[in-house]
Amino acid sequence: MYVDTRLQSEEKYTYSITDEPNLDQYQVMLDSGQEDSRSIRVPKTGQATLRGLQPYTEYNMRIRACLRGVVNSCGVGPGVVVRTLEDVPEGMQAPVVVAKGPNTVDVAWKEPISPNGAIREYRVVRRRYEQTAELLVNIVPGNLRDLSFVNSGPDLEPYYEYEYRIIAINSKGQTSSPWVLVRMLAAPPTSQSAPRLYALSAYSIRASWRPPKKTNGVIERYRVDYQARWDDPTRFPSPTEQVSVDARTHSAQFSGLMPFVTYAVRIVAINHAGATPSEWVETRTLQAAPADVRGFRVEPVDTGEAAILRWALPGRPNGVVTEYRIYDREIATPIYQGSSQLFEYRRLQPHMFYDVQLEACTAVGCGKGQYQRIQTAETMPSDPIPPVFGFINSTAAEVRWRVPVKPNGVITKYEVYRRSMVDDREKRNVDSIPNAVLVYYTKDTLGVNEFSFVDTNLKAYTRYQYMVRAINSKGFVDSDWVEIRTEQAASEGLDPPIAQYLGTDPFSLRVSWGAPRKPSGVILSYQLQRNSSTPLSFLPTDDMAYTDIGLKAYTWYSYTVTVCTAGGCSTSAPTLMRTLETAPLHVVPPTITPVNSTTLRITWTQPQIANGEITRYELLVDGVSTYVGRDTHTLMRSLIPDHQYEFVLLACTNGGCSESLPAQGRPAEAAPRGIAPPMLIVMGSSSVQVSWTPPSLPNGNIGWYELRRNGELVYTGLALSYQDFGLTPGTRNAYSVTAYNTMGSVQSPEATTTTYASSPAGLQPPRLFPLGPSSVRVEWSPPAMPNGAIYNYTLLVGSDVVFAGMGYSFVVQGLESYTQHDYRVQACTPLGCTVSQPAKTRTMEAPPAGQSPPILQPQANQDGSHDGVLVTWDEPRRANGEVQYYELSRRRVERQPAEVKYSSTHLIYNGTMMTYLDKDPLLRPYSEYEYRVTAVNRAGSVASIWDMVRTYEAAPTRVSPPTFSQVTANLITVEVAPPQQPNGDITSYYLTINGTQEPASRAPIRTVGHGSPLHPHTIYVITATVCTAGGCSTSPPAHVRTAEAPPTGLLQPIVAEVTPTSAIMTWGSPAQPNGVITRYELKYRTDCPVSSQPQQLPCSLGDVVTAYSGEQMRLNVTGLAPYTNYLVQVHAYNGAGSMNSSAISLTTRHIGPEYVAKPTVVAKDRALVVDWSKSFLLNGRLDKYILYTNGYRTYSGFSEQTTVVRENYSKVTSDVSHGAGDGGGGVRTTATPKLVVASPFYKEIWFIIIIALIGMLIVFVVLACCLKNTGRKAPYMRERVPLPPKPLRQAKLWQDAYPCYDSALAYTMDSDAYSTVRSLRSHPYSITHKQHQIFPDTHL
Which parts of the chain span the membrane according to its record (predicted)? Predict the structure, then answer.
């Protein structure tokens, strides 16, 4: 026979077989003798095609031929080794890709599961995640053992995701592994831009910045470093402070800064690989109110009515100090206001404390220091307060006084003077009063306002006068004299009361007393007091005796009597008295102590309440008096041991006796005496009944009895009888009993008796010899004492008789295997039978039988996930021996649509325990397995049937990252692929978005953002968690960025500084930029009302003006109108839209009013309508308009026009005034228009000078005439001064003085001017008196 191999294809072979006669069949044996060997039956045609072979694999093939009709007649031919051809590789596993740095990746892989030939080379291919362009990065020969490659270089960017795969190539083709995703390690960020800074206030700065151009990772946070910079080079540099913000925040406002200080700020971008700082940028905080305002340096003035205050700059000016103010705590307004640093505070009181406070102001605010207490200089005290008096009695008086109303300094000493009442007039000067005595002085005056002094040794009912002198460092002052009178004194010479017994009553006393020898006044009452009890009061007319009842016997009592007058009370010396005796109370029972068995010691104590002196004690024992005396102890002898006695104690005084409660006691025990011999009753041939009685004198408690037979102890206990078994038939025995207590024993005389004759004795147990699993050979011997002729032997197995006869051996059949039985032999004589003690043995072992299947319980861990299978089982129903060990086997059940397959059987346990926890790593979750148990003993084994169990579910494995099918600004549609190994039924899917877990869902596709909207333009890290009943598994994270949306959360701008025509506005980035902010726009328009005025006019909102468009967040808006309300709004734009902030109201600062045009004057009949509505720009809050006509106020109010009466008016002046309420500071601006209606000439300077000279000349002429005509008669009328010129001449002078005079406007003059003109015509020189009507207004 030979084998002819011809290779036909890569996976099949054809064999040519020489056919021989008588051959039945042929088989092709592949790899015979190996684990995976198999045989294939082939037809007898001589050729066979083998399919299903592995490519490029060596096989050892043999031909096996068998003869027809002959058993075991098969033969095997020689082997042939052949190899199949190559094929395309299969099963290329994914490489292991590990990022080792920001630009380095380690790639390692294994050869394909089925190379199907010689691998020529491996190609390493890379692409960027979510891109299709692939790059061949390396080619590795296929014959290398180390299948790894390090890919590094600048083309790998930090923290970017790349995918790698391996292509294996042989001569037939190539296969590719799956793509493997790897993220490069992070590197520190690069190119962090400098921040933009805005000083928001004196204490805060807002910084905004852009992210680094290359984050090189996930920015964990930004750190804002800021440091105060000082212009003084000698000052120690300030430490750098830090503020950390979230990575999503690109602006930060940090406060707690120092005002008006330059700060340098930089931004540090931080990821987990490092940090990158920006350049330092400097800015200065705004001014603020000064801080650390220091105190004054005080210089008191000697008069005590002023103090000079000096001060220095604040410790922290926080700007330029423009003004200082000084406040007094008691005055609402400042006492000083100015820029000087010195102030003299006047109109003060001497040596008084004043709380003053310094306030320093900058352009933006004021800061106050602490109130400082200053003190003026001392002067002599004044306004003393007369003393007052506290208590006054017959010998003493308490003098009280207070500090003078005006101490004007520190009172260092007080002196108290006293004098007796004198008849001559009182004088205030102490030195001039001979009987004035210094009775007290004190220098302890600091911190005390009230003083007191008790003047003693005064005479009763006498008049005295007191005066107090107060002294300080500048002088002294005396108070007025104050008079008092001492009071009456108490009585003297009161004897102690007298106490007496009332017969034999021990509970009462009779107390009496007498009047005092020196009453010292009218006796008002007597008071009797016992010990410290409440006194009893008696009138002087009452009986001076009292019976005191309810007292305690044999007790000392103290009595005193107090007598009271108007001047006080006096108490007598005490009287002591003891009440009579009576019988004692509460006699304590005696204490009994045993001394020996016949003696007791009895002791007792004195009664708790003796009620007198104890005269004797009497002791009664069982009612019989055994002791009388005064001792507190005695001995009782000749007593019965352990006998109980009753004791009663009597205690007696001179007032009677009392007895105690009874007490019991007994002496100690003694050895018992008087026990009789035991009584014996023969119960049979081998037993005797023994009984006895207790001793006649037990002398205590019998503890136990001992029974002896023939001197041998047979019983110990408290029973009074005992049946003695096991005696020899027909023998004589002697018994005695011994009784014991704690002190000794007594033994009875012996008693004897003889047992009856009996059956055989001394039969030994049989001898046993197991012969097999069901038979035992039994042998026995005759009894040692037959006690007669043996006529029968009986063999008992348990209680069953298996043999009766005269033999000495027997084979017992039909027993159960490995079972223990009791075997006994019975021998009988005509007088009776005896049975031997049992003998035990087991039958031999047999193979076990009846092994039940195991009990299978799938196990779960604390999370409910698969954790093995707990297998327990019972012993076989018939062990038939000792089970040596158990074998536990397992196989997996694979259910297919058409059939059920089982894996190979694995022995997983071999031992003696009957429980096993199978936690084999090969156990798969949610799979079916079968188990069986095999019990093994020395004779064989038995196996149970297979039992099936399904393992619990476990968490899925190999969960892929989620994918995103649709992304908007607020919604993301997430798809989760099924796990590659579900390990159970999928119950729910969870999505975790930036660490926040969404509610569970049963659908793998879900749109997030409906419940909690997502933030636009935000990177979200999303992981998918897939859950079964056995647990959950989380996928690797996937990153996605939402689309942009219009920004939100833009706060209204902040007004940093305001002037009358400009405002510095700052604003911050939107709280939610929702994208990249491309520009900001600042818009404003005038508000309604345009300004706050007392009388508002109709208005409308102004046009919107775009003041700025750009990326900065600070702007100085110029071109504004003073004291005008504006609405300012900021708009922020990004790629998706814009958002405007809420409008902020802005009011520019006020300035003085501005004159712009003449007022208009319109004549209507007898009136003029003056309108100045277009004459002024108010530039502030209007206080009032004032209209002056010829220098006189004719109108004051808020209206912009008024009507005046047309008379001889010459000039109209219009004023506008700002009040202090709007911050105008009380500045008044007067605008005079060019329009002049008429001006009275008499108000011109030149006219007033001429008139004054003419007046002086006239006065001189008049005086000359008076002197010339002295002593002459009075002149006639014709001799007077000539009349003044005619009125026409006056009109001519008027026109010369005012060339622009218009007669049509002359009616605008007021009545005063008109009357003045008339007076000028008649008395041209009287105008000189008008100059005295000037009124200086000093309240401007």
Answer: 1245-1267
Describe the crossing of helices 1311-1322 and 1287-1297 by its angle, rounded to 10 degrees: 130
Q: Which residues contact 995 (CB under 8 A, 6 or more apart)?
A: 1021
* Buried residues in 255-267 as b, exposed as e (16+ CB within 10 A): eebbbbbebbbbb
Burial group, residue 1264, by CB count within 10 angstroms (0-12, 13-18, 19+) = exposed
Phi, psi for 1329 (deg, rounded to 5): -75, -15
- pLDDT value at residue 1179: 85
Instruction: Write the pLDDT tens digit of every residue in 1164-1215.
Output: 766 788 888 788 888 888 888 888 877 778 788 878 888 777 654 445 565 5
pLDDT above 90 covers a percentage of the chain that reads: 34
- How far is it, in rounded angstroms, from Cα 926 to Cα 1031? 12
Q: What is the Cα–Cα distance from 961 to 146, expressed in whole angstroms?
A: 31
Please give the order of strands across the beta sheet that includes 866-872. Answer: 855-860, 866-872, 915-918
- Position 409 pLDDT exceeds 70: yes
Residue 992, pLDDT > 70, answer yes
Give the tens place of pLDDT for each residue, 203-221. Answer: 899 999 999 988 888 898 9
Beta strand 1031-1034 with 996-997: parallel, antiparallel or unpaired?
A: unpaired
Cα 774 to chain centroid, rounded = 81
Copy the structure tokens of residue 367.
């800061």
Secondary element (H or E) of residue 677: none
Residue partners of 646: CB distance under 8 A and separation at least 6:
621, 622, 623, 662, 663, 664
From 181-195, 654-668, 697-711, 1192-1206, the region with the lowest mean pLDDT: 1192-1206
Tokens of 389: 């008096």
Q: Give the per-residue SS3 of 833-901.
A: EEECCCEEEECCCCCCECCCCCEEEEEECCCCCEEEEEEECCCCCECCCCEEEEEEEEEEEEECCCCEE
The predicted pLDDT at position 1275 comes to 45
Which helix (H) or strand (E) segment is 1127 a member of?
strand 1125-1134
Chain mean pLDDT for the chain: 83
Question: How many residues would you count in the chain?
Answer: 1340
With 0-12 / 13-18 / 19 or more C-beta atoms within 10 angstroms meaning exposed / middle / buried, residue 833 is middle
Please choose, from the candidates 1163, 1158, 1170, 1167, the residue with its C-alpha nearest in 3D space to the C-alpha of residue 1202: 1170
With 0-12 CB in 10 A as exposed, 13-18 as middle and 19+ as buried, what is 135?
A: exposed
The pTM score is 0.32
User: What average pLDDT does the segment 341-350 reach?
Assistant: 90
1255 φ/ψ angles, rounded to the nearest 5 degrees: -60, -45
Instruction: Check if the beta carbon of residue 387 is closer than 8 Å to that of residue 401.
Output: yes
> How far apart are alpha carbons 638 and 641 in whole angstroms?
9
Beta bridge partners of 991: 1024
Read off the DSSP letter of residue 100: E
The C-alpha atoms of residue 170 and residue 987 are separated, in whole angstroms, by 45
**Whole-angstrom distance, CA of residue 351 vs CA of residue 372:** 15
Plot region of 108 (φ>0 → left; ψ -120 to 50 → alpha; else → beta): beta
pLDDT reported for residue 974: 92
* For residue 191, pLDDT beyond 60: yes
SS3 letters across 1268-1295: HCCCCCCCCHHHCCCCCCCHHHHHHHHH
Residue at token pair 């992304």: 967
Pairwise CA distance, residues 777 & 770, whole Å: 6
Average pLDDT for 5-27:
55
pLDDT of residue 743 exceeding 60? yes
Q: With beta carbons less than 8 A apart as the criterion, state whether 302 and 278 touch.
A: no
Distance CA 1303, CA 1307 (A): 8
Q: How big is the CA angle at 38 (ends 34 and 42), to the nearest 5 degrees?
A: 145
